[in-house]
C-alpha cells in the first residue's frame, strides 16, 4: 500500500513540477499503473490500473478506485497573478488555507500533519523517486513547490491526503492523493 501511495504521490508531484514542459520519461507507466499526459496544460502523472476517471466540476482530472471509493488522485489548476508559490505564504499557511477553504468541508475536523517546501527536479529522477527519500529533491531551476499531508475526520470515515502545489505558467496547480 505504501509503495502505491509513493508512486502516486511522485506522479502527482511530477504533474506540477513540470507544468512548463511535458516529458515522456515522466509519463512512462510503471507496472500496475497507467499514465496520464495533458500536453495542453503541461502535466503528467500515474494512477493505478483499474481506477476510473470521474468528472468532478472544478477539477482538471480525477481518478478513483472502484473498490475503495475514498482512494483517489486529482489535479486542479486555477489561474493566478502570483509568480511563485511562496507569494501565497509559507508551506504551513498555504496548506492550512487549502485544507480549510477548499479540500475539506467545515463539518470535518482537519489536522495538518506536515507541510514542506521543495524545488523542481529533473524528469529522470521522477522514474526512480520510489527508490529515493521523497524529500531529497534537487534545486534545478529554482521552481518551488509545497507538499503537505493532512487528515479530515467525518462522522463515518477519516480521509488521509497527500498534496502538492506550485505556480507555473500563470497557473496555481495542486495535486491531491487521498486514501
Mind explaining what this structure looks like?
With 179 residues, this protein is α+β, with helices and mostly antiparallel strands. It has a single domain (2-178), classed as Mog1/PsbP, alpha/beta/alpha sandwich (Protein Transport Mog1p, Chain A, 3-Layer(aba) Sandwich). 18% of the residues lie in helices and 37% in strands. It contains 3 helices and 9 strands. The strands form 2 sheets. The protein has a 7-stranded antiparallel β-sheet, with helices on both faces. A two-stranded antiparallel sheet has the order 1-2. Strand 1 (33-38) and strand 2 form a beta hairpin. The protein is globular and about 40 Å long. This is PsbP-like protein 1, chloroplastic. InterPro entries: Mog1/PsbP_a/b/a-sand (IPR016123), PsbP_C (IPR002683).
What's the tally of helices? 3
Apparent shape: globular
Question: What is the end-to-end distance?
Answer: 10 Å
The largest pleated sheet is described as: 7 strands, antiparallel
Overall helicity: 10-25%
In CATH terms, what is the architecture? 3-Layer(aba) Sandwich
Strand-pairing-aware structural class = alpha+beta
Radius of gyration: 15 Å
Please, what is the average pLDDT?
Answer: 75
The CATH homologous superfamily corresponds to Mog1/PsbP, alpha/beta/alpha sandwich
- How many E strands? 9
Strand share of the residues?
35-45%
**Spatial order of the strands in the main sheet?**
3-4-5-9-8-7-6
List the helices and strands and how they pair.
Blueprint: H1 2-17, E1 33-38, E2 43-48, E3 52-53, E4 61-64, E5 72-79, H2 91-103, E6 109-119, H3 123-126, E7 144-153, E8 158-168, E9 171-178
Antiparallel strand pairs: 1-2, 3-4, 4-5, 5-9, 6-7, 7-8, 8-9
